[in-house]
Automatic annotation (TrEMBL):
Keywords: Aminotransferase, Glutamine amidotransferase, Membrane, Repeat, Transferase, Transmembrane, Transmembrane helix. One of its GO terms (cellular component) is cytosol. The gene is glmS. This is Glutamine--fructose-6-phosphate aminotransferase [isomerizing]. It comes from Candidatus Lachnoclostridium stercorigallinarum. It is an enzyme of class 2 (transferase). Its EC number is 2.6.1.16.
Amino acid sequence: MCGIIGYTGPLQAKDVLLNGLSQLEYRGYDSAGIAYFGPETDVHVVKTTGKVAQLRELCKSVREESHCGIGHTRWATHGGVTVENAHPHQAGKVTLIHNGIIENYHQLTVDFQLEGKLISQTDSEVAARVLDAIYDGDPLASIRRLIPLLEGSYGFCILFSDHPGEIYAVRNVSPLVAAYTHSGSIIASDLTALIPYTKKYAVVPENKIVRLTPYRMEFYEMDGQPARPEFLEVNWDTDAAMKNGFPHFMLKEIHEQPEALKNTILPRLSRGLPDFGEDKIPDALFARCSQIRIVACGTAMHAGMVARAVMEPLLRIPVLVSVASEFRYEDPLVSEETLTIVISQSGETIDTLAALRLAKELGSRVLSVVNVKGSTIARESDFVLYTHAGPEIAVASTKAYSVQLAALYMIACRMALVRGKMTEEEGAAFMKDLLDVIPAMEEMLRQSEEIKNIVRPLVDKPDAFFIGRNLDYAFSLEGALKLKEISYIHADAYAAGELKHGTIALIADQVPVIALATQDRVFSKMISNVREVKARGAYVILITKNGAEAAADLADVRIRIPDLHDRFTVFPIAVVLQLIAYYASLLKGLDVDQPRNLAKSVTVE
Ligand code: M6R
């Protein structure tokens, strides 16, 4: 969850670290700190609670030159948000930063008699003290002895005060990428901090040790032998990770959706049909399974809910969706005949990764839909379909959701073709409908101002309800999540037909209800449900297709989306629901991109 960075080279380390931390801040923003070698080879630490901007202020008083250091932006797990708990942590000759959780920290505290010595309440400081206790002047050997003692996940960057100019790093589960450039060596938990310096980077392999010096980057196996990492090249540049004139990353990313969809769909079209040849995904994968399990978290799981509603009726095989953190404990019915589809923007979500590993253990083949190239989930999957959304920085996921949907729709279409559930003609029509969502999304983006005005009456309300039937229900789930995570308005989604079984008790005068009625098959039933909430005083924002005039007088406000086939309305609806959440947060004066208590990638269970 935390952002970590290390730099050694000719540039001012303080500047490289602070700029990197600003790029990584979306990974955690409770507190931040840096450590650097001073001119006397001593290691100095500056840290504070709050955001990177506060750390930057504090660092203004740092006058001395430094060319080697490490930096951290924290999402609190062990221990509250205090300066003591902020990273880096120091113990003797060791200064370290950590992303992850050391699960056996308590046992280590006992074994190494650390009680009474710890300054913070963090598991990370325990790791620093254990490393200092076993340190014998040889960093590589000492890290090798440390690793078997640790249980849990970690990405560490470490300075040893008697090895100036050098940074050591090691990881298990938690991500680390590193690069050697003409401006020195750099390592970080995320690519966004590296791209100002290079496009070529190495994914630090698990349980290998990296030594960075200003002149080289070396990887070692645990037995001390040199190791070879995998080098990758990123296909986006610094601009993609900047706001480019938008006030927030979230708004920029909402606007990037049409382009992201084109990038995800067009390279995979062959004679109008989906073709995964370049992705090396064989048709046999789709032909032989007898059920599909979709596993993901948060927004990615909601994309899975939509995919389920499209796939099962089309493919006529069971398609089940599980929240990844539950999947592991529900003793899932998974076998060699199951195709598991894992969805993740970051490719690092720990619950999703654990579910993937379990599915593989149970014999299932795993196809992942991932945005971040070379991420752990991508590497551990049997097959990967990369979405090409570019970097998503805002904590609230937007463009990742729509490209996940596009990728899943393409999988549905390819599978239907392979399994004889669609003719080529039907497949081409399906793909044409998918491409038609792009102008439909653009049309909704042009209505941003109207949507902003529609949102105004919502912002002082404590609750909001999203209702819909069938696919509209799956879309509602995402609308509610988006609204609550960035506006802090309590929002929930309900299958509209289920309301009268309890929830309608909460509908009173002026309670906002966002009603989605874009599914022709259940339109009239949905309108009856809208009448029910209206009769109880709800303030109704009704979203329908352009042509649906039936309920013209029913709602307080009406939003019309282009007239698409039912299956495809999710794309323009996603834009509407994202903009509702965005403007609610903005009008409340909240931190849109970095909402409280959250972090972009959730690498703890
Ligand atoms: O990186 P992932 O797609 O695996 O992340 C999954 C969720 O943590 C993520 O979608 C989260 O729910 C977002 N904050 C929602 O906007």
